[in-house]
Amino acid sequence: MTAKTPPKASPEDITLTVRDRRFGRNTRRERGGDPVASAWFLALSASFPRGEAMFIEAVKAHRDGTPPRLAAEIREFIRQEVNHTREHVAFNRVATDAGYDMSNIQQRVNALTNDALQAPPVVTLAITIALEHFTAIIAHLFLTDEESLLSEGMGDPDLWRWHAAEEIEHKGVAFDTWQHATRNWKPRKRYVMRCMVMLQVTYRFLRNRMRDALELMEQDGVSGWKARWKLFAYLVGKPGMLRRIFPSWLSYFRPGFHPWDHDNRALIQLHDSAYVDANMQAIPAE
User: Fold this and answer.
1) Cα–Cα distance between 244 and 238 in angstroms, integer?
2) What's the top EC group for this one (predicted)?
């Protein structure tokens, strides 16, 4: 009888580091610049505080009984996500102070995260690993081709570099928690649920982030078919974030997938070396 192959896990030499940074305090956001790119990044940022709070609840619900190494990684994952939430709250506040009305966007984000949290805990965890895959592949693209994505109006680039590095670093934690939580499931059941949830998450994530971005673009005077075309061209044409992450997104549907199948830890090291001086200039806590 053939022994059951254990599911993949994160590399044992990956260490999570909590980089407690602060960005953009006491700064003003100027309207103008690139209305498409700034709207897209603000739409992403608007989803982070509640979304990452949901991620925390999802992994906390399954941390009892985890192996010691995974339990330690969950603790560091939570600390990183708490810091991300804090910094994107600050980022979003600067946008509100600049005159952007975020109330409708926030209501939609709250409704979606509330629905996810009311689902069975294992479903919430499946939603979390799908969204964590999105954040990890977007983070990879940002750190490998920052110049094409940076634009005036998107805020402090160091915020996005810092967030991207930590998303890559902890990209396997929620997934390993999922593997542990479903360890008694048949592989087919685990695979089918993971893929079905990803399809639903992808639809909702893209639909709502695009809707949010279009609403923000309208506040900058770009609306109608022109706004929709400009956003489509930005996401699929040039720089083409969605087009370029598509192969990595598709890899999620491979049987036996694990986020660390693509070992891109060198980007974390690049961040910690190349950007450390800029990060250390972040304004201290209030």
Assistant:
1) 10
2) hydrolase
pLDDT value of residue 13: 85
CA distances to 28, 52, 85, 132, 231 from 164, in Å? 23, 14, 13, 11, 22
Q: Which residues, at least 6 apart from 201, have a Cβ–Cβ distance to it below 8 Å?
A: 127, 130, 131, 134
Structure tokens at 130: 């799908």
What DSSP character marks residue 284? P
The pLDDT-based confidence of 10 (bands split at 50, 70, 90) is confident
For residue 112, CA distances in Å to 106, 116, 163, 231 come to 10, 6, 22, 23
Q: Which domains does the chain have, with CATH numbers?
A: 35-280 (1.20.1260)
CA-CA distance, 49 to 59, in Å (whole number)? 16
